[in-house]
UniProtKB/TrEMBL annotation:
Residues 3-275 form the Phosphofructokinase domain. Substrate binds at residues 125-127, 162, 169-171, 222, 243, 249-252. It holds the Pfam family PFK. Allosterically activated by ADP and other diphosphonucleosides, and allosterically inhibited by phosphoenolpyruvate. It is an enzyme of class 2 (transferase). One of its GO terms (molecular function) is AMP binding. The gene is pfkA. This is ATP-dependent 6-phosphofructokinase. Its cofactor is Mg(2+). It is found in: Cytoplasm. The keyword Transport does not apply. PROSITE patterns: PHOSPHOFRUCTOKINASE (PS00433). It catalyses: beta-D-fructose 6-phosphate + ATP = beta-D-fructose 1,6-bisphosphate + ADP + H(+). SUPFAM superfamilies: Phosphofructokinase.
Length: 319
């Protein structure tokens, strides 16, 4: 292999830049040229590639987001879009590809692998809903962002005896909500994986208010309801005044934590090593602190991470 490509696709996350840097520097050590495709699969379909050398990736390790930029592409899901990408790769002489992204992006990587392109995926999504890795890139940074915000909100909530509904990201995944609830001592984590009973929550919050507690925090995953609606429906029953905070895209940015910088560096290096040694069609993942490779086929078919244990922990410690 003489030349490989790299791209970041789907929702960005902190640590992507550090992983690109690691992949580029590993490849260059092995005398392999690297190009970066801009805006994920969109750039691949347009042949929008920039050469990446050691200098091009200096000064980015500590920066959130992705300097290659990212996008979600409907066109790439079609056989025509994928063929366009394959044609461009051939024309540019790119023989292998490293793809950073979440489940949709990894599904795209699998499609290219099936068309004969050597591909290695790096799980990158704050949702932490990708099987075969204990942690995806960006999760730890997003959690640290969330707990910083929740701690701040708790201070003001206590000063005013208020209950806050704090909405975090996760359309289909309650991971951020449940872990941040444990880490901040929130009273509730409401997640898409499990039903909840608002009448029961109201009763418990009322009891909490009558006990003289000065605040209550409900962390809501975005896929489990609308923060304002939940706040409106509990506000007259619980004693506490209620307020809502939607953390939104704040969660996805910022300098990566040490954990994410290290994970990104390990993932990036291993992805390139796998690609050039002919072990493609796989995703790198973290398992018991080792970096393992799992076939993309298994990753895409794999079971989502069970939430029961962490939710139980949040429940036992929260009320
Ligand atoms: O998949 C990552 C994620 O941050 C989800 O948690 C969230 O629902 C979604 O992306 C938001 O997507 P967008 O940035 O396109 O609005």
């Amino acid at each position: 292999m003489k030349k490989i490509g790299i791209l970041t696709s789907g929702g960005d996350c902190s640590g992507m830049n550090a992983a690109i840097r690691a992949a580029v520097r590993t490849a260059i050590r092995l005398n392999i040229e690297v190009v970066g495709f801009r805006k994920g699969y969109l750039g691949l379909m347009k042949g929008d590639a920039i050469p990446l050398d050691t200098k091009a990736v200096s000064g980015i390790l500590h920066r959130g987001g992705t300097f290659l930029q990212s996008a979600r592409s409907q066109e790439f899901k079609t056989p025509e879009g994928q063929q366009k990408a394959m044609d461009n790769l051939k024309e540019l002489g790119v023989e292998g590809l490293v793809v950073l992204g979440g489940d949709g992006s990894l599904t795209g990587a699998l499609a290219l692998h099936r068309l004969g392109l050597p591909v290695v995926g790096i799980p990158s999504s704050i949702d932490n809903d990708i099987p075969y890795t204990d942690m995806a890139l960006g999760v730890d940074t997003a959690l640290n962002n969330i707990i910083y915000a929740v701690d701040c909100i708790k201070d003001t909530a206590s000063s005013h005896a208020r209950a806050f509904v704090i909405e975090v990201m996760g359309r289909n995944s309650g991971y951020l909500a449940s872990i941040s609830a444990i880490a901040t001592g929130a009273e509730y984590a409401l997640v898409p994986e499990r039903e909840y009973d608002l009448a029961e929550i109201c009763q418990q919050l009322r009891a909490r208010f009558e006990e003289g507690r000065d605040n209550a925090i409900i962390i809501l995953a975005e896929g489990a309801g609308h923060a304002q609606e939940i706040s409106d429906s509990i506000k007259d029953a619980i004693g506490f005044e209620t307020r809502v905070t939607v953390l939104g895209h704040y969660q996805r940015g910022g300098a990566p934590t040490v954990f994410d910088r290290l994970l990104a560096s390990r993932f990036g290096k291993r992805a390139v090593e796998l690609l050039i040694s002919g072990n493609s069609g796989v995703m790198v993942g973290l398992s018991c602190n080792a970096i393992l490779a799992t076939p993309l086929e298994d990753v895409i078919k794999g079971e989502k991470r069970p939430q029961d244990e962490v939710l139980r922990l949040a429940e036992v410690l929260g009320v």
